């Protein structure tokens, strides 16, 4: 029986813009960031394979910038929100050669109303 720890991070941006006849235009930019920190037990099945389960916390942050322009008015709005929730994961590690680890795992979390799910693939050094 061993201990496994995991840190994951991801970020993305999206922007949209448009307008209508008469001079009104708008632009929205959204940036989202998520990270998690988890730990849990790892069990060696044989010389080549280990299984693990993880639990911890995940934090998501969203930033919004909006600009609206029309004759006689130019407006801006900015806002951000951060939420933290429960994160969990499970996976399998393969040891093709001594001290080298190939990892395939699942991670899920619920941060506020958002449910996040992902597959993580990695290569690492086992010590």
UniProtKB/TrEMBL annotation:
InterPro entries: Bact_OM_Invasion-Related, Enterovir_OMP, OMP/PagP_B-barrel. This is Outer membrane beta-barrel protein. Gene3D superfamilies: 2.40.160.20. It comes from Salmonella enterica. Transmembrane segments: none annotated. The keyword Transmembrane applies. Pfam families: Ail_Lom. It is found in: Membrane. It is a multi-pass membrane protein. Residues 1-21 are annotated as: Disordered. Keywords: Membrane, Signal, Transmembrane, Transmembrane beta strand. SUPFAM superfamilies: OMPA-like (SSF56925). GO terms for cellular component: host outer membrane; membrane. NCBIfam families: PRK15240.1 (NF011777). The keyword Protease does not apply.
């Amino acid at each position: 029986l061993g201990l496994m720890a995991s840190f994951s991070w991801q970020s993305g941006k999206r922007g949209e813009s448009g307008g209508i006849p008469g001079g009104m235009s708008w632009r929205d930019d959204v940036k989202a960031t998520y990270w998690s920190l988890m730990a849990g037990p790892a069990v060696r099945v044989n010389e080549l394979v280990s299984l693990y389960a993880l639990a911890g916390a995940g934090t998501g942050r969203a930033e919004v910038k909006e600009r609206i322009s029309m004759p006689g008015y130019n407006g801006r709005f900015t806002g951000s929100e951060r939420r933290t929730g429960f994160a969990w994961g499970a996976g399998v590690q393969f040891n093709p050669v001594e001290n080298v680890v190939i990892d395939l795992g699942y991670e899920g979390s619920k941060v506020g109303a958002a449910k996040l799910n992902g597959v993580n693939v990695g290569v690492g050094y086992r010590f």
